[in-house]
Design brief:
- This protein is an alpha/beta fold.
- The chain is 34% helix and 17% strand.
- It has an eight-stranded parallel β-barrel, surrounded by four helices. The chain has a two-stranded antiparallel ribbon with strand order 1-4. A two-stranded antiparallel sheet has the order 2-3.
- Helix 2 packs parallel to helix 4, helix 6 packs parallel to helix 8 and helix 11 runs parallel beside helix 12.
- It is globular.
Length: 399
């Protein structure tokens, strides 16, 4: 990520000569000026040091260097010096590397199973974080939650508490990360319809297809109750010891014209992204209140299709993205209105191709690349990881 700073213009004026002072008076003035300048520099450094140290402890770990200016001296037609400034780019530093390995939902069924799964983490990859799927796409929750809406909807699959999961990961020498799918939830809205998309005319439940074709409702980011539900889950896991939470599926369903006719234009308006960014910011604040950090995951194939409503760097508080390249998903090709992108190479080749295609969408964020897919073996995933590093990304998630 690069920052641009045009700097300040530097103006040079000719030194004026002042007459009328005696030699003693001039000497006294010079001495007083030197003392005054020295005092200003002393006070400035005394105050600036503690303030800088304090500022480094606040917020995200990403800090930037001050812009530097190189002066090139040229002269005008009269021989007067003109100072021109060349502003160099500000390069980010102290960006925290995120090297994680993802477990499956089957790995967190009980303590023994989790301990065995942690032993399978590749020892030579310097993995620091363990990513755990706590809420999956569709809505199922794989830990013992106390959330009313989750327990009432019958979607709680796991039996381990989030604290127990986090403690086992910490005991194995890793840092725990919770993974939560947000608005790709088709179950809770069925029981609590005010969390879903509702028709414009009579407020009835909208489903994404006919009942015969398996149509299902979706959780809506326009619903305050739905946003609070996901934020409460973030609060629950981060207060239990998870140091980071990766929130994914800040997406809208694929609305057809027939859907818009019964839902109204609100869900396809040009400013609909504000519902997603507002929700993401609330979840970010929940994580921060528990001294944890939130990362926002986006799907690479969605970006390729132009589904990038949530990518609003001027509105989002979260500044780190996890780009998920799902090898299973892209193996069938990615269809866009303009073309069909085929991914017929090895996992490593497909990852590089996708990074080349969507790289520009990521320029305003810190990025960790996730390579996932059940059809690829662990060695293929590691080879793809090497390709990620070769493309210049030093943060990655395996699995």
């Amino acid at each position: 990520m690069k920052f641009k700073n045009k700097g300040r213009k530097i103006y040079k004026t000719k030194e004026k000569n002042y007459y009328g002072k005696s030699p003693v008076g001039k000497a006294f003035s010079v001495g007083l000026t030197v003392l005054l300048i020295g005092g200003i520099f002393f006070i400035g450094f005394s105050v600036a040091g503690p303030l800088i140290n304090y500022a480094k402890q606040k917020g995200d770990t990403v800090t930037t260097t001050a812009p530097t200016f190189e002066e090139e001296v040229v002269t005008d037609a009269n021989g007067e010096e003109i100072t021109q400034e060349i502003t160099t780019a500000v390069v980010p530093f102290n960006i925290e590397r995120f090297k994680a390995f993802t477990l499956s939902t089957m790995d967190i069924t009980d303590k023994d199973t989790l301990r065995k799964a942690l032993k399978r983490v590749p020892a030579d990859e310097k993995i620091e974080y363990i990513d755990v799927p706590m809420k999956e796409p569709g809505g199922d929750i794989y830990y013992a939650t106390n959330n009313y809406y989750a327990t009432s909807s019958g979607i709680v699959v796991g039996s381990m508490t989030p604290k127990d999961i986090a403690n086992e990961i910490i005991s194995a020498g890793y840092k725990p990360v919770a993974h939560i799918s947000t608005f790709y939830d088709n179950t809770v809205p069925m029981y609590f319809q005010d969390m879903s998309y509702l028709t414009y005319a009579d407020g009835s439940l909208w489903i994404d297809n006919s009942v015969e074709a398996g149509g299902k409702p979706w959780m809506s980011p326009f619903s305050e109750k739905a946003v609070n539900y996901n934020a409460d889950l973030v609060d629950e896991v981060t207060s239990a010891g998870f140091v980071k939470v990766v929130c994914s599926d800040f997406v809208f369903p694929d609305f057809r014209q027939s859907d818009i006719d019964i839902l109204g234009d609100r869900y396809v308006s040009s400013d609909r992204y504000m519902a997603l960014t507002s929700a993401a910011n609330m979840m970010y604040d929940k994580a921060m209140s528990n001294d944890a950090k939130m990362l926002l995951e986006v799907d690479a194939s969605d970006l390729l299709k132009g589904k990038k409503d949530v990518l609003q760097p001027m509105l989002l508080r979260v500044n780190t993205l996890v780009l998920n390249i799902d090898l299973d998903n892209i193996s069938y090709g990615v269809v866009t209105p303009d073309t069909v992108y085929e991914f017929n190479g090895t996992p490593a080749e497909n990852v590089k191709k996708m990074l080349d295609l969507v790289g520009e969408d990521l320029e305003d964020f810190n990025v960790a690349v996730r390579v996932s897919g059940s059809t690829a073996g662990i060695q293929e995933l590691l080879d793809a990881k090497d390709e990620i590093v070769g493309c210049g990304y030093d943060s990655y998630v395996i699995g």
